[in-house]
């Protein structure tokens, strides 16, 4: 088995907490399994998260975003870890995606076609979400909007194939034993990168 190029993107706001622990556990298993890994911690990047003119006008493209695009092109597999806030993704993640997944990079408009052409084909993804909502309630009553937003209307739209998603919650009331089980699940998911 030859190793894959794996980009792990963490959209958690700090280096502490269960989000960072999941990222670390996943990354350790990826490396132990012979894959190459690169990390993007969105809270450490310097960029304007607001797409100020939509796609009508070019916006200065910060060096951290240039590096992030290079990492996305390098990667064969992308793992995205993020908390669910108000049923959606954190503003920093949304801003990052708005700024990085630009026309001509992630997709291309086609004359006389209803749908743009995806430009990031051949890549796969794992998603790891944390939340304070019970998972069953998030999935069945809310219909998992933060999951579908990223997996279907963002990644799949750009040609990236989501393989598996894990949701962890409620974090706020979780026990040490529950968190240990979550870390084990993250390790097991990393073993499914091949």
UniProtKB/TrEMBL annotation:
Taxonomically, the superkingdom here is: Bacteria
Pfam families per UniProt: Flavodoxin_2 (PF02525)
Q: Identify the residues that the record assigns to the Flavodoxin-like fold domain, covering every copy.
A: 4-188
Does the UniProt entry include the keyword RNA-binding? Answer: no
What InterPro entries does the entry give? Flavodoxin_fold, Flavoprotein-like_sf, NAD(P)H_dehydrogenase_qn
Which keywords are on file for this protein? Oxidoreductase
Q: Which PANTHER family match?
A: NAD P H OXIDOREDUCTASE-RELATED, NAD(P)H DEHYDROGENASE [QUINONE] 1 ISOFORM 1
Family according to the record: Belongs to the NAD(P)H dehydrogenase (quinone) family.
The name under which this protein is listed is NAD(P)H dehydrogenase
